[in-house]
Design brief:
CATH architecture: 2-Layer Sandwich
Helix content: 40-55%
Shape: elongated
Number of strands: 9
Largest sheet: 3 strands, antiparallel
Length: 165
C-alpha cells in the first residue's frame, strides 16, 4: 500500500523509483507459483505522518480503517494530471514503459482498477500468475514478506518446476 506516486516532499514530482518498485512487486508476487493473484493498492497511507502530509499538501482528509489511512489519489491526480482520467491514462502509459514482458504489461494494464472506497479514489493493481515465471528487467524476483528478493540462477530449476509440474 502506498499513499500515491507523487513525492510528499520537495518538488512533489512523480516517484519513478516507487512506480518501478510497484511493478517489480507485482512480478515477484506472480513468481510465487501458479494460480496466484497479487495486489498493490495505491491511495492508502500506512501511518499517521504520511496521511497528515497528504492532507496538508492536497487539502483533503483521510479515513481511518483498520489502522490504515484511506487517503485516495484524487489530490495528486487533480494537482499533477488535471483529474482522475488523465492520471489513469498516465499510469497506463507508465506500465507500457516498464521492463517486463508484453503479456505482463497487458495483464496489469487490463486489470488495474480505479475504484471509490470510503469516498476516496484508489488504484488497485492486480497480477495473476501465468503459466511461466515473470521477469522484471531481465531478472526473476519472488515476494517474501515485504521484500522482493532476487532469485539466484541456481534456484531457477525450482522456480520453473513450480510452473511446469
Amino acid at each position: 500500500m502506498k499513499q500515491g506516486f507523487h513525492r510528499l516532499g520537495g518538488d512533489g514530482g512523480f516517484d519513478d523509483e516507487l512506480f518501478q518498485k510497484v511493478i517489480k512487486t507485482l512480478t515477484a508476487m506472480a513468481n510465487v507459483g501458479p494460480d496466484i493473484v497479487g495486489y498493490v493498492i495505491i491511495g492508502v497511507a500506512d501511518n499517521d505522518v504520511a496521511a497528515k502530509r497528504v492532507e496538508a499538501i492536497y487539502g483533503t482528509s483521510s479515513t481511518l480503517f483498520n489502522k490504515f489511512h484511506i487517503t485516495g489519489i484524487q489530490g495528486e491526480a487533480s494537482k499533477y494530471k488535471n483529474g482522475l482520467d488523465s492520471y489513469f491514462q498516465f499510469i497506463i502509459q507508465r506500465i507500457a514503459s516498464m521492463p517486463i514482458s508484453e503479456a505482463d504489461k497487458n495483464q496489469i494494464s487490463r486489470n488495474i482498477k480505479l475504484i471509490n472506497y470510503y469516498e476516496k479514489s484508489i488504484l488497485i493493481f492486480q497480477i495473476e500468475s501465468r503459466n511461466e515465471p515473470s521477469l522484471y528487467d531481465g531478472k526473476y524476483y519472488i515476494r517474501k514478506g515485504p521484500n522482493n528478493d532476487p532469485i539466484p540462477p541456481e534456484e531457477y530449476p525450482n522456480l520453473f518446476r513450480r510452473f511446469f509440474v
